[in-house]
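Example (one chain per record):
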Amino acid sequence: MGGLPILVTIILFMVVLINIDIDIKYFGLLLLFLSYATIGFLDDLIKIRNRHNEGLTGRQKLIWQIVFAAFFAGILVLRGHSGDVTGLLKMMHFDLPWLYFPFVCFIIVGGANAVNLTDGLDGLATSTLSIAFTAFAIIAYNFQMADPGIIAATAAGSTLAFLWFNIYPAEVFMGDVGSMGLGALLCGIAVLIHAELLLALIGGVFVLEALSVIIQVSAFKFFKRRVFKMTPLHHHFELLGIPEPLVVLMFASAGIVLAAAGVWVSLGI
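Predicted structure:
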């Protein structure tokens, strides 16, 4: 549960610096952040109490994740947020509320779980999250959206500070309370600033981690074969004999490149 100090820091900054009581969208983001962190907290607590790596069941987590994502998406749709969609998403008619609503739910649930899957090596999720949050802070300020930029910058600073204690060999572990909450927050910020498609690029490391699991499970189910030695993807590189710190450095470097690419693309939007 090492992610708790990160959560407390971000929440304090949000309450003090953001007009949550004026704009309900930011109140919804705060609730999304807290709700996903609570799911992770309960999962961690059950694991600690039972002294076993099994916490909440996959179905239990998924149901509550969908419920809270739907609540956040509902707030945005009611506030007319879908009407501000531009570019490719508008061409694909995602400005329509009935399409935008499930799209946001998919982004939140998928993104939070992808970050959770990435949290498997010392400093891996923490470093890649700090990079992604930094990118979205820059993009938010470029879009002249100060409040999301402040939240993203706070999250970037908090995760970077936590990295000091989480880098190999880790003294403190983030746990699901951190990875779930921060994953949902990252996706929520991307949705608020209408950088939904950029999230797939900036969070490319998380996407690859999730895809590796999907590919592995599908290949084994239909062909009884494994594509990777082990998933998520970072474990595959470990089993190839690459030291854990070097795997983390590889993924963090990829995260920096993808984040820079995302910021560069955003300048042309």
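Caption: Residues 53 and 138 are 37 Å apart (CA to CA).
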